[in-house]
Automatic annotation (TrEMBL):
<dbReference type="InterPro" id="IPR041701">
    <property type="entry name" value="MetN_ABC"/>
</dbReference>
<comment type="similarity">
    <text>Belongs to the ABC transporter superfamily.</text>
</comment>
<dbReference type="InterPro" id="IPR003593">
    <property type="entry name" value="AAA+_ATPase"/>
</dbReference>
<feature type="domain" description="ABC transporter">
    <location>
        <begin position="2"/>
        <end position="241"/>
    </location>
</feature>
<dbReference type="GO" id="GO:0005524">
    <property type="term" value="F:ATP binding"/>
</dbReference>
<comment type="function">
    <text>Part of the ABC transporter FtsEX involved in cellular division. Important for assembly or stability of the septal ring.</text>
</comment>
<keyword id="KW-0029">Amino-acid transport</keyword>
<dbReference type="Pfam" id="PF00005">
    <property type="entry name" value="ABC_tran"/>
</dbReference>
<protein>
    <recommendedName>
        <fullName>Cell division ATP-binding protein FtsE</fullName>
    </recommendedName>
</protein>
<dbReference type="InterPro" id="IPR027417">
    <property type="entry name" value="P-loop_NTPase"/>
</dbReference>
<dbReference type="Pfam" id="PF09383">
    <property type="entry name" value="NIL"/>
</dbReference>
<dbReference type="InterPro" id="IPR003439">
    <property type="entry name" value="ABC_transporter-like_ATP-bd"/>
</dbReference>
<keyword id="KW-1278">Translocase</keyword>
<dbReference type="InterPro" id="IPR050086">
    <property type="entry name" value="MetN_ABC_transporter-like"/>
</dbReference>
<keyword id="KW-0813">Transport</keyword>
<dbReference type="InterPro" id="IPR018449">
    <property type="entry name" value="NIL_domain"/>
</dbReference>
<dbReference type="InterPro" id="IPR017871">
    <property type="entry name" value="ABC_transporter-like_CS"/>
</dbReference>
Amino acid sequence: MIQFKNISKHFELKGQTVTALDQINLDIPDGCIFGIIGYSGAGKSTLIRLINLLERPSQGQIFINDKDFTALNARELRQERTNIGMIFQHFNLLQTKTVSENIEIPLKLLGVAKAERKKRLAELLDFIDLKHKKDAYPDELSGGQKQRVGIARALTNHPKILLCDEATSALDPQTTQSVLDLLKKINKEQGITIVMVTHEMDVIEKVCDYVAVMEHGKVIESGRTLDLFSQPQHSTTKTFIQTVLQQQLPVNILNNLENKNHNSIYSLQFLGTSAQETVVQAAIKQFDVSLNILFANMTEIDGSVIGQMFIQLLGNTAEIEKAIAFFEQHGVKVEQPGVQA
């Protein structure tokens, strides 16, 4: 487990003290994919760089498997860093080195024998599916291929932790998905704990088991990804989630309704599609209301499905209130949404 205990980080900038991280307390479980999301300047990249002490905290402690990294001497820290790989947004490949040579760099620095280096290189080239590019130079590769080389280089020493700092933000959506699939494969097959920084909520949705939301140097909300998507507490978290889950009814749907009363429109959020169908059908049968389904979609998060449905409820106030109470009693989140322009 990675643990941040009362972590703060201050910088001096033009004679003033800037607080990049402010009293962070956070636990990252072993073997998970943990996402850290926030807007630019939230402190997320500073936080991830503290794990391998590329940045040192101004105060607080960082524990990895109960070992206080902030108390290690230089020799001990060098040894522990061999268990931590890191990949970057801009790949950081040496332009004058081939794919094979870039991947081998960490092994050469550790003095690994040539035969062992070649064996590990062959394993990694096969794993990232770039055997056919082993003699190519970085300027001959696509962005996705460059990031795969960066991932292979980070895996050379069989790390227990892999840090990903905006690893997909420079890639197109299709390439991003292929890199995320590779990271999921690494996590599943090798049991490596992956900590990834991103500003894209769809990245969190697709791969992360847990997530921490940062703002102004603080962790404002954290937990299992499914819990944060289904029950966000902070307004910033809700804003991020709106980029993935439909939170407002498209105005063109409203314009096509005979009854355009905004107050008759409700958003229903379910866990599981079967529950969604059962509860809605039961409400239609049980209450004297007109229920029209306007829009529905599903999103899979951490192995579970979140169903989102927009409905129009028409009828007398008492029956509508009974129907809403019925939904809530069956674990359905009911809100009155805005209308998307």
